[in-house]
Write a structure and sequence with these properties.
The chain is α+β, with helices and mostly antiparallel strands. It has 14 helices and six strands. This is Magnesium transporter.
Length: about 400
């Protein structure tokens, strides 16, 4: 056995136990540096804490076995990021991503490898090329000049907003036809289908709401946003000049909310001190608008579901009123027939009465008047029911 080799146990069960113990004692992390190079680390939490200099309580937020709400925390030398499946630690020159082999995290890793490297650092500056490409290169250069931590944070925010927006779109695609089918035909199958969709919508709304609340809380506190300027703190919190302030700006290239360079320059001119968080506020505000739009879609879907439930309840009430009308109709007929049967039964009994002699025609008139009385009584009962609104017209 060499020093760098591994011992393969003879017993397969022992190998499984050893692998489980190793999985418990260490976790898989992927390290991405400023050049986009990735390295898989299999280290325990103490090594991670020592590397990025954060507390155990901050690392506990990233534990996939524990349920913590979406969080963006700024520490002295790192940003602790917990957004759904994206659990990362961002420093001024590297990103540590947890569970990099997850199917939802793999696209984030690929996007980080594409966006983290600064084109100005890996591509020589040719004046002729800039003249040929014109303003496009200038705009790309501005985006690449943003701090490393902002580029990584933007990738994470973009990924989670796009992920939740895609889930919302899939839910809308399935929910609206199901609701329309339920309004046309009320059945157990359609009701169960809508029930499952409503449960999925409630869970998704809670997830979107957590991300939105975290961004809103971060936007409301300038001190929390200032803690995310890792490069500025690393440089000793030196005042930002007008020419260098543009390097702090990170615009969103995906959601159609870019700010023109002229407006950015005017903002930087007005605020050029070390406490300026306007650039980060623009970045967070852009993704806050996107996640808020996703939440509005879910709210609209919830209102549509509530309207459908009201419509279904109205239909059920209508059917219930029809049953009540039928029951009242049958009850009125039964009462009227019982009175008619009572009269005819009394006069039809075979009992010798002295007044019954030579008065046979009386029985016929009693039966006739009893039938008329029964019909009038039935009409009066139905008229009174309609007047009180117990049955429909």
């Amino acid at each position: 056995m060499t020093r760098d080799g591994y011992v393969v146990p003879v017993d397969p069960q022992q190998a499984v136990v050893t692998a489980k113990k190793k999985a418990r004692s260490s976790r898989s992390w992927m390290l991405l540096d400023a050049t986009g190079q990735s390295t898989v680390l299999d280290v325990d939490k103490y090594a991670i804490m020592h590397r990025v200099q954060i507390h155990a309580r901050d690392l506990r937020i990233l534990d996939p076995l524990l349920s913590y709400p979406s969080t963006i925390l700024g520490r002295e030398k790192a940003i602790v990021l917990n957004l759904e499946h994206i659990k990362a630690i961002i420093t001024s020159d590297e990103v540590l991503l947890r569970d990099p082999w997850d199917e939802h995290v793999i696209p984030v890793v690929e996007e980080l490898q594409r966006r983290l490297p600064s084109e100005n650092a890996i591509r020589p500056d040719h004046s002729e090329g800039r003249e040929n490409l014109g303003g496009h290169n200038d705009e790309a250069g501005e985006e690449d000049e943003s701090p490393f931590e902002f580029r990584a944070l933007e990738v994470a925010l973009e990924a989670i907003c796009s992920f939740l927006a895609a889930r919302t779109t899939d839910l809308e695609t399935a929910a609206y036809p199901a609701l329309d089918e339920l309004t046309s035909k009320i059945s157990s199958r359609n009701l169960d289908r809508v029930r499952k969709l409503k449960s999925a919508m409630t869970r998704l709304t809670a997830r979107v709401q957590k991300v939105r609340d975290e961004l809103e809380q971060l936007l409301d506190d300038d001190d929390d946003m200032a803690d995310l300027y890792l490069s500025r703190k690393l440089a000793g919190a030196s005042p930002v000049s007008v020419s260098g302030a543009a390097n702090w700006f990170a615009a969103s290239p995906t959601i159609g909310s870019k700010i023109s360079r002229a407006s950015r320059a005017s903002i930087i001119t007005v605020r050029g001190d070390e406490n300026d968080v306007e650039e980060l506020e623009m970045l967070l505000e852009a993704y806050f608008m996107q996640i808020d739009s996703t939440l509005n879609k879910l709210t609209t879907l919830r209102e549509y579901i509530d309207d459908t439930e009201d419509y279904i309840n109205i239909q059920l009430d209508n059917h219930r009123n029809q049953l009540i009308q039928l029951e009242l109709f049958l009850s009125s007929g039964t009462v009227s027939l019982s009175i008619f049967s009572l009269v005819t039964a009394i006069f039809g009994m075979n009992i010798p009465y002295t007044w019954n002699d030579d008065h046979g025609y009386m029985f016929k008139w009693v039966v006739i008047f009893s039938g008329i009385f029964t019909a009038v009584l039935f009409i009066l009962i139905m008229s009174y029911s309609r007047y009180k609104g117990l049955v429909g017209s």
